[in-house]
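hey can u run this one w/ acetyl coenzyme *A bound, need the structure tokens asap thx
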Amino acid sequence: MDWPGKRGSHPIGLLGLGIHLPERVMTNDEWAEYVDTSDEWIVERTGIRTRRIAGREESTADLALAAAQAALADCALEPADIDEIVLATDTPEVFIPDTAAYVQARLGVGHIPCYDLAGSGCAGFVLALDIARSRTLADGRRVLVIGVELLTRLMDWQDRNTCVLFGDAAGAAVVGAGPGAVEIVAATAGTDGSKSDILGVEAGGTRLPITVERVQQGLHKLVVMEGREVFREAVGRMSQVSLQVLEKAGVSMDDVALVVPHQANLRILNAVARRLDIPEARVFMNVQEYGNTGSASVPVALWEARDQGRIKPGDLVLLTAFGAGFHWAAALLRFQESPGIDSGC
Ligand code: ACO
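ok here u go:
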């Protein structure tokens, strides 16, 4: 459905943006101490050189809270100014209830509605932006959107096929209507549930409940992944959904200053650039430094792109993401000519 992009005279979009990265940096050489791998293999196949690892004392809500506070500070808002929280994660604080409830209590907002988008994979944050935009449009809510992942806590540190790919991080955005908002011009998303068994963690739900035997087999942290098929789908879907959102907004790829994709793998990002027929310089990449941080990867990349001065006033910026499900989502942002989030409120 096409939404008008404004509420009253103000655009609806991102009022503030914040991130949180755990301090500990882990190199590829360190991974080679745990599994049979090498810096050379990881760099050649994925481009990843380092990733952040959450400390033992840190959990999902800690990272989410820190990113949320940074996003609020970015636009000089208080927790009391927030009307709703939507948090995307595949690595929740506990199984029940959702992580958003923990963040709500610790942030000190009122009894506002809060919920997780769980299991939506790496597409979760962009999908949540679209939901937040519709909530603002419907009744003027200011929504705190969080993408957070402690993927290194979930996975098996003995499985070289997956463990070297991931990292921990959180990113958050305050979505609402305001004169300086980075307008969400258009957004779109899709799902192909017939591919749900190609990427995911099978044990722990009702199909394969946790038993001692399954834990002994390590099934509770076995990331099932058909790497090549995931690679193909990620390139195809991120490219396709990008073109769909551009069509919805009535603009072309030539109008887009920067593409900020989900940071899965450098080769995937290069292939998306080729598929979209744009130079790699117009695709923001920081997977080399942080690995794949799931639903946190797009807000962290967007924050860094802004921080590094890669986005200028008036620029159109395209977010595109793909993850387990398979889910995919894209959003087109317009940075304002006048001071706002692009100059840090
Ligand atoms: N170190 C050394 N060797 C490894 C490692 C490792 N860390 N991991 C796997 N291998 C070996 C395998 O055991 C296998 O060996 P074999 O041939 O003797 O059986 C071989 O490398 C696999 O080689 P390829 O299949 O040719 O590897 P490929 O070039 O496909 O790269 C990779 C694998 C990196 C997983 C790639 O398929 C990929 O990036 N897929 C996308 C996966 C992804 O991004 N997942 C993230 C979640 S989804 C998302 O965010 C979009």
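The chain has a mean pLDDT of 93. anyway lmk if its weird
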